[in-house]
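Students often ask why we bother encoding 3D structure as a string. The short answer is that it lets us treat folding as translation between two languages. Here is a chain of 317 residues written in the first language.
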Amino acid sequence: MTASQLPYPTPQTYHKAATRLERWLKACVLCPRRCRVNRLAGERGYCGAAAHSAKVSSAQLHFGEEPPISGSSGSGTVFFAGCTLACRFCQNHQISQEGQGEELTPQDLAAVFLRLQLSGAHNINLVTPTPHVVVILKALAIAREHGCTLPVVYNTSGYERAAAIRRLAGLIEIYMPDYKYFSNRAAARLSDAPNYVENCRDSLIEMFSQAGGISLDKNGVAYKGVLVRHLVLPGGLSGSRELLPDLAELGGEAVWINLMSQYHPCHRAWDTPGLERRLTLDEFLEAREALSRSGIKHGFVQGFSSDNGEYLPGYTI
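And here it is in the second language, the structure alphabet:
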């Protein structure tokens, strides 16, 4: 099967899901923060997102994602402004925390999706989509109605409500969540994310239930499934030793992972104890050993010296 042969939902299905989730915006509970602001009346919560438009920073073909996502023609990546986290080491803080971008209506956003398809993208890669999910679903309805045949990648920090992910069942082809931390204390200190672990684990379980392991077409491009990212932080702050076996338990043989070594201090990391230095080789090798012991057999390990998005081939244990 290829992406163009997938049985995509009807435009009406996207519209129904958008209508259901739009009700949540009256006292917003889309993410674990549950700000309960009335976004329908113009109020803004932690993420800063509006109700009827989505702020987009950029939309382009991206060749630096994992090989099954970028493929040979690139991933149609849409960077949304605002985030449910405030990571002190965020490389995209101008977008995620400072709100850089342009407000787009569902019609405008649908045009972006269609333009990416015309550019040859393998997929529509939604980066930080949750604050804007209602607008995104409305845009997908319009885009599908006008011939969009690309799978959708839900590219998220993992700080999700399982209840919200559950309402996306059948609407998202590929989930690409982070599993950032195995300690709520670290998540709260480094990303201002209370109860990150429980929420991430519950949402991962829901994603695996919906999409399973990565399915590839004859060219090695993903058209369905879940690929989990884990960035190894210095000093064991990400809890990789405990997190990786836990991920194996959550997803079983379906798990695909990208173990990443690319951490470097930026944004507010210089003022944050433990984050002010780069990862050492020994620290990354320890995480890689934990991965080997976990039993996870599919995915990618980023080259240690790589800070440019290049990946080593898949490995076997």
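Translate back mentally: The CA atoms of residues 11 and 144 lie 6 Å apart. Keep this in mind for the problem set.
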